[in-house]
Design goal:
This protein is an alpha/beta fold. The protein contains 10 helices and 12 strands. Pfam families: Aldo_ket_red.
Amino acid sequence: MFTHPGILGPRDRIEHVMADNTIPSITLNNGVDIPQLGFGTYQIPPRETKGAVLTALEAGYRHIDTAQMYGNEREVGEAVRESGLSRSDVFVTSKLNNNAHDPAVAVDAVARSTDELGLGPIDLYLVHWPLPEVGDFVDTWRALEGQYRSGALRTIGVSNFQQGHLERLLANTEVVPAVNQIEVHPYFQQAPLRAFNRDHGIVTEAWAPIGQGAVLDDPVLAEIAGQVARTVAQVTLRWHIQRGDVIFPKSSSPARAAENSALFDFELSDEQVARIDALDADRRLGPDPDTFNWVPA
């Protein structure tokens, strides 16, 4: 069983059938297994979410990522229930909204997410942003610790936390986050933060794994794609997989969703991985977690 959130090797995989590929899972620090490939629902409108998630589940995805902020938890839950799959076969992640950091409000927010999804205990629940100028995320985390201990949440983690934020949590709370979902792509690789995560038993999840499309015209990636007879998106996602990231490619297109899942019947060579590693430009595309403090009205 794969137990270390570092680089995957062929003996480290728990294999699940997905189309003609095999998907690895990673064992989190509380013993729960998380599929390394998930389907992201960010910016998929609620009216389109149910169909997109059903298509993804039919294509073999078994990990769905949503959030209170996305406004589509209900539709994700409907899709999972109507898929015909056993609840235990689908891993669902959601996230605490930015207006729910007050500990008392956070407890109610977990209950709302649970009701919206309608799937029982949520597999993984994240603090979506640290919001360092809005309030004390340590108190927010303690509220999630209570929900975790009560059984309402199977696993808890964070999203967009920098090393300093994590150091505060580790020094002042009891439950080590199982994951840290952060922006990672070839142009913004976050090597020091990924290393900190790894050293503390925290799995790195990569949002925007293809840089919101920014990497798709990269000549180095295009050359590697030609060498392995794959698309640039597939090469980029495979690079993440071999590094040990959990990834969430998003697409409402059935063909693209299927393409994004075809990652487990080829491998990149060490030289190809090194060439992609060399593309790092410290180019953040999303908000800076140290200054981002947006709270919905």
